[in-house]
Hints:
By secondary structure, the chain is α/β, with parallel strands linked by helices. It has a single domain, classed as Orthogonal Bundle (Phenylalanine Hydroxylase). Helix content is 52%, strand content 8%. It has 13 helices and 6 strands. A 4-stranded mixed beta sheet has the order 4-3-6-5. The longest helix is centred in the middle third of the chain and has 24 residues, at 176-199. The protein is globular.
Amino acid sequence: MTTLSDIPGLTTTRAAFIERVQGEGRLYIEQPYELYSEENHAVWAQLFARMQDRWAKYANHRFLEGLATLCLDPTKVPRLEDVNGFMAPLTGFRAKAVSGYVPAYLFFDCLRQREFPTTITIRDGAVLDYLPEPDIFHDIAGHVPMHTDKAFADTLVMFGECAKAAAERVSLIADEREQVAVLTSVIKAMARFFWFTIEFGLMRGTAPGELKAYGSGLLSSYGELAHCIESPDVQRFPFQLEWVVNQYFEIDHYQPLLFIVDDFDHLFAEVERLITWVREGKLDHVSPGEPAISEADLRSFLVAARAV
């Protein structure tokens, strides 16, 4: 009988290495580059090649500049040390290999320290178009080119400051039930904000009426990158913080609603407002609905609050 340890490579959901390090309780790991199979490299090459025309047409120009800066090999899964060699001198950001899901506070605190938790597995070649969890193509080809831009990198750091502000606020609440209720609401608001900006954000282009994608969920999706700009089925509205933090989302289909920021200065200013709202208690009671907040996410914030 074939077991997981018999399957070569670092394919998402089928990597023996990931199963082992998770069993050892290791979240932050090294990238075992020698474990990538030829099939893994072939999947990267296929994903990378088919995005070229889409990126050229629909991606924000800062993404395209970052993509060129990183000098990614179009035929092989990238080495994180090579990516960091190009990126770190520009913005101080580094890709940090992880073995799986990073609880919310730890994730945002990594951003505050200019570290981006990066998945090292790559999707199966049979499911190129949809994956319910990140893989290295989503993280490196979708997220990381934007991390070479100083304004965008500084915005990511502010998300970390927002998480810190949430922990500090909760540390002042004595009742544990109230702590959990407030944190559930604040984390939900932060997740929605992150989703509608860093993952699925649109930005105004240089020509009148032009829109470009800067969100990584769009930039790593062959189908949705065109759909988000061209389809009449997508509602596109100017960014409104009050709306975004109260708007639920679902992950298993193309997004029917997207928000537009003017530029990266606008995005940075909105994250600053988000932090202010955390401190003022304006996010204590956002609307219910997706995303669900896991026990691990809550626990990560509670641990941080107790350490304040």
